[in-house]
Design a protein that fits this description.
Largest sheet: 10 strands, mixed
Helix content: 55-70%
Strand content: 15-25%
Number of helices: 12
Number of strands: 12
């Protein structure tokens, strides 16, 4: 008697149309799941790369904003003079204060502007290069340095002006495209941005570089002990915390895709159930010539798994293509290019595992039903 796999393939190829439609259902379910999860996967990869590029050791923000830590996201302010005190903490080499403002525009998306001492910009973005104009300097007031995407989104070039809370800021430079989150950000002198936003003497964050990186965690703990209203996290801690938050987003994506996965299960289940009902006499004949109940059970489950394996493989390819479409949509509609989806080997493995789980779950009942058929009644079946 043929092995279950060979016989399963033969049975499936005899019913090409039905097999193709069922496989398509699994393919679409897996493609949607992989494509959606590639967004959270890509965010994890992107944020890790961005954090590693910061060139700082500790990030400090107002306690109570534990859900975020990156510049452009922090909204709680605290006294600027805290930065001076932090700079005197043991092992601290530099402490750079910063303030952020979100500029609402009539068209397009808001522009995030980061205010900081101009002389400290190189600490914040050491890899920055100019496309046009110049960097900010300490004598600048109401000046702007724009990231490449920010300049494009605001249709601004050197000497253009942008209104920030009723104050006109002049663009003095445009940065070359770096492919990071700060492509979409503007930078201004801290004092000018504090004046424009009515936040004189206030900052949202402090970035710290330490003398001994191996003691960064110890230094962060010391800063928190001195300033109980602040949260100080090493970049590794901040990265881990952000990954936990993205894990929640990943769970939400998986919840959304569960609808398509359920449809995939129903597709396979219905197909296998119909197949069993149509092959009652055939199964009875196999039992009569010596096939065991276990063999029949294995045959039906193998057919279900074969459909799911093919659908999962094609679905992973489709998920990769969908992830490229998501990248294009984000870049064209939002103007953000640093956020890239990622179809990693782990995600492909997840897609295939889910596909095989669909096949297993959907094939169990039809397989059990087929294995329990009475031989005599099955042979009499028309």
């Amino acid at each position: 008697m043929l092995a279950p796999l060979r016989l399963a393939v033969r049975n499936l190829t005899k019913r090409k149309a039905r097999t193709a439609l069922t496989t398509l259902g699994v393919t679409l379910a897996i493609a949607f799941t992989v494509g959606l999860l590639s967004l959270s996967e890509g965010l994890m990869v992107t944020i890790e790369m961005e954090v590693r590029k910061f060139g700082i050791d500790i990030f400090i923000w107002k306690k109570g904003m534990e859900t975020v830590f990156l510049p452009g996201m922090v909204t709680y302010a605290f006294p600027e003079d805290r930065a001076d005190g932090i700079s005197r903490v043991e092992n601290v080499r530099t402490a750079v204060p910063g303030l952020e403002a979100i500029v609402l525009r009539g068209e397009g998306f808001p522009l995030i502007v980061e205010g900081m001492p101009p002389s400290s910009f190189s600490e914040f973005k050491p890899y920055a290069t100019l496309e046009a104009g110049r960097f900010l300097n300490d004598s600048d007031t109401h000046s702007l340095l724009l990231g490449h995407a920010a300049a494009t989104a605001t249709n601004s070039s050197v000497s253009a002006t942008i209104d920030i809370m009723g104050k006109r800021f002049t663009v003095v430079g445009v940065l070359e495209k770096a492919g990071d989150m700060f492509d979409s950000v503007g930078f201004a002198p801290l004092g000018s941005l504090q004046e424009a936003t009515g936040q004189q003497g206030k900052v949202n964050w402090v970035m710290v570089k330490v003398n001994d990186p191996s003691r960064a965690e110890e230094t962060a703990t010391l800063i928190e002990a001195i300033y109980e209203d602040l949260t100080a996290a090493t970049m590794d801690e901040a990265l881990e915390f952000t990954k936990q938050l993205l894990g929640i987003a990943r769970g939400m994506h998986l919840s959304i895709s569960s609808v398509s996965l359920l449809i995939g299960v129903l597709f396979v289940f219905a197909t296998m159930l119909i197949s069993v009902s149509e092959r009652v006499r055939e199964i009875g004949t196999m039992r009569a010539i010596g096939a065991s109940r276990l063999y029949i059970f294995a045959l039906i489950v193998t057919e279900s798994l074969a459909i799911s394996a093919v659908g999962g493989t094609v679905g992973c390819v489709g998920g990769y293509l969908l992830s490229r479409v998501i990248n294009w949509l984000i870049a064209s509609s939002v103007g953000i290019t640093f956020v890239q989806t990622a179809v990693t080997p782990g995600l492909v493995a997840t897609g295939m595992t889910v596909a095989l789980a669909i096949g297993t779950i959907a094939g169990l009942y039809p397989a059990w039903r087929a294995s329990r058929l009475d031989i005599v009644e099955a042979l009499r079946h028309e």
